[in-house]
Amino acid sequence: IRKGYKEEQLKNIGLPVKTEFSNSLSKDIARAKLGLSQELFTVLVMFGGGGFGKNVKTFQKLLKAKLPIQIVVVNGRDEKSKNRIDKILSKHNTIHKVLNLGFTTDISTIMSASDIFIGKCGCITTNEAMNKNLPLILSKKQVAQEYDNYIFLKHNNACITQSNNLARQIEILTNEKDSLSSIRASLKAIS
User: Fold this and answer.
1) What letter would DSSP give residue 162?
2) What are phi and psi of 161, to 5 degrees?
3) Alpha carbon 174 to chain centroid, angstroms
4) What's the rounded Cα separation, in Å, for the pair 169 and 64?
5) Measured in Å, how far apart are the chain's first and last C-alpha atoms?
């Protein structure tokens, strides 16, 4: 408007995302497609493929969970992190089911299969998760351009702040379905 456009020329449409993130795919079908357990609480870890390195640290924290969970790590093109996680898995027995991926174009299916997302608060991924109504665990420590996304979600009760004891936080969430339902309702209200 300050640039001379008329109000009727402008539309607030939000951030466009691929149609597949707006289409519903049942958790059962998504998990079957990925070879995942239907019963286990499923955590998606994805910090982008740019080599930010948080996938490995987050994965190591999740391995400390005392209840069996399912962990899906998407490393993108960060082969170093994928290889480090593969190496950890080859040296340690775990009670958890792990799917450690490199680059994939199947993020929509992975999000449909997941109970919660842990990652950075990038604009596209955050909107994809919101469209999938997937609760997010986010760190307070976000890069500058993503911090406002975190603040917006937190202000609207649409995310959980990552605690210092991530494994315990996940154990609690596996039994607190009401907390996740509340976050899903908040995500739906703002998306």
Assistant:
1) P
2) -80, 130
3) 15
4) 11
5) 25
Neighbour-count burial of 92, counting CB atoms closer than 10 A to its CB (0-12 exposed, 13-18 middle, 19+ buried): exposed
What token pair was written down for 157? 């009760």
Q: Are 67 and 171 in contact (CB under 8 A)?
A: yes
Give the three-class secondary structure for 100: strand
DSSP secondary structure code for residue 36 in this structure: -
Q: Tokens 């609690």, residue?
A: 172
The answer to whether the beta carbons of residues 109 and 33 sit under 8 Å apart is: yes
**Helix H or strand E segment including 135:** none
CB-based contact 62:170 (threshold 8 Å): yes
Q: How far, in whole angstroms, is CA 17 from its chain's centroid? A: 16
pLDDT in tens, 106-153: 999 999 999 999 998 888 889 999 999 999 999 888 888 889 999 999
* Gap between the Cα atoms of 89 and 138, Å rounded: 25
* Percentages of the chain per state (helix, strand, coil), in multiples of 5: 45, 15, 40
Give the Cα separation of 172 and 176 in Å (integer). 6
Which phi and psi (to 5°) does residue 70 adopt?
Answer: -115, 125
Cβ–Cβ < 8 Å for 69, 174 = yes
- Give per-residue pLDDT as tens, 6-19: 888 888 777 777 77
